[in-house]
Request: fold
Amino acid sequence: MFCASTTRILCRTALFLATAAIGAHSQSVSMPRTTTGYRIAGTVVNAASGEPVRRASVAVLSEEADGQTVESVETDNDGRFSLEGLPAAKFPLTASKRGFLTAFYDQHEGYNTAIVTDADQDTSGLLFRLTPGAALRGVVTADGGDPVDGAKVMLFLKPHGHNPGARITQAGEAATDDTGAYEFDGLAAGEYLLVVKAEPWYAMSRSAAGGKQRTEGDAGAVLDVAYSMTYFDSTTDEASATGIVLAGGSREEADFNLHAVPALHLVVETPIQQSGSIARAELRKTIFGTEVSAESAGFLDAMRTGTVEFTGVAPGHYELTQGDPPRVAELDATTSQQVDPNLGTPAIAVSGSLQSSNGTALPANMGIILSSLEDKPHAPLQTQCNNGSFNFAAVPLGAWELILASPTKSLPITAISIGSRTRSGSQFTVRGQPIQLVATVSQSETRVEGFARNVKGKGQPGVMMMLVPKEAAAFASLVRRDQSDSDGSFSLRDVAPGQYTVVAIQDGWELDWARREVIGRYLSHGVAVTVTESSGKLLKLPEAVPVQSR
Reply:
C-alpha cells in the first residue's frame, strides 16, 4: 500500500519522508564567488500569479538532520534575495511568508532540490515559486437554521493523479464556534472532501431494552435523536460526497445543514470467555478508510446481562466486532435491533515477533501497524511491540501490510515468515486460521549516492530518482525515492541489502510510481546496484544514471 499514508494512511507517509534525502539542484555553469565564499541568489515569485513576493524570508539550512538555519535574508520589493559568503556545501533552501505555504526550493511532495555551492555551479539566478495558501470555510446549521456549536469538521485530501493504490487521507480537523462557523487555511492546492460529525445539544439517549425502536408516542423519543455523518454537499452517503477543488490562493465556502433523526439502539451479545473476561463488542465508524470514532461495550452491563446496548447511534455504515471467537461485521444500521451474533466473518488472531536481518538489537518502543490492502479497506490496526513481540486479537480476513513505526529512522520489513514459508516484503494474507509470523527487519544504514545526467552529460536537477527492488514482492517496503540536487547528485538512504535498479525520470512526480508495472518500462535504462550487509554506510554508483523522459 502506498500512501501516503496519517492512521494507516499517516504511517505510510512518515515511512517515505524518512527515506527521502533533502535535495535537488539547479543548472551547472560557473558560480559567482564573493571574496569570502559563495552566493545563492534569485527571485521569489507567487506561483499562482508570477508576481514578485516582497519581504519573504529565505534561508539556507544545514544538510544535517537538525536542519539548522545557516543564513537567512528577506526579499526586497522586487522579490530578490542574495545569501552571501557561503562555504562549498549542499544547502536545502526554504522560503516563507504569511499567506503562503512554507516550502523548499522546487519541492515535490516530501522531496526538494538542495543547492550545491562550488566553483562549477551557477546559483545566482534561482526562481523560487512560492504558492499562496488556499482557504476553506463555512457554517454548520441545524433544523430551523440554528448554528451548531462544537461540531467536528473533518477535512480529507484526495490523492493526486490516478494511482489506484493511493488512498484518501485526513488533512485536518476543526470545531465550529458558537456561530456555527469553521475555517481551514494554509491549504495546498488539491481536491478536498468535507465531513461533519455532531450531536444535537438537546439529545438524551435512554436504553430501549432489547434494541426496540421507540414509538412516536414515547415521551423520550423526541429527545432520543442524532445527526448522521454529513458530507459536502448535504449527503449522508460517503460515495456521493462532492469534492471541492482548491487552487493556490483560492477561497471557497462550504456550508452544512444537519437534520436530526431518531437515534438507533443496537444490542450486542457479550459472552463470557474461558478466561472469565467478557468478549467486548466494539462499534467503529470509518470514513474514507480512516477510523473517526469507536465505542466499546460497557463492562458492567455486559457482566450483568450478557449483552451491551449501544445507544444514540446515528443511522449509517459501521464496522462491528462481536462475539467469542470474534467476528467482524459490516453493519448498515437503519433501524434499532438486536444484532445477530453470527453476523459477519471471523476475525483472526495475528501475533508475531521481529528479528533483525544482521542480528543487532532492534529499537525499543516501536509501534506496529497493520494496514489493509483491500479495495474497500478496513481501518488500520495499531499496537505496541513488547520485547520484540506483538499481538492483534482480531484481524479481519484479507490482505494486510505490516509497518513499523520507529521514532528514529525507517526500518523496512524485508521478509515475513509464516510456518515454513518465507515471503519477501511486508505483506501477508489473513485467511481462516490464527497466524504466527516472524518479520525480518533491516537496520541497514547504507546510503546509495550518484548523479543524474542528461543527454548532454550535464547534471540534471529536480529529477525524480527511484531505487527499485528486483524482488517484486518487496517493492512496497524497499522502494526508495529522492530528488536530484542542483548538480544532479542524489542520495537514497537506509537501503536494505538486495538487488536494485536506480532510475532517473524527468517530471516523474506525475507518474503512478507506486505501481511497479508503470515503473517497469524505465528499468532497462537504469543502473543496477547490489547492496550487501558489508556495503558499509556509503555506496557510490560507478556510473551516472541517465535521465529519462516521462
Observations:
- The mean pLDDT is 87.
- The chain has five domains: 8-130, 134-205+226-261, 262-345, 346-441, 447-549.
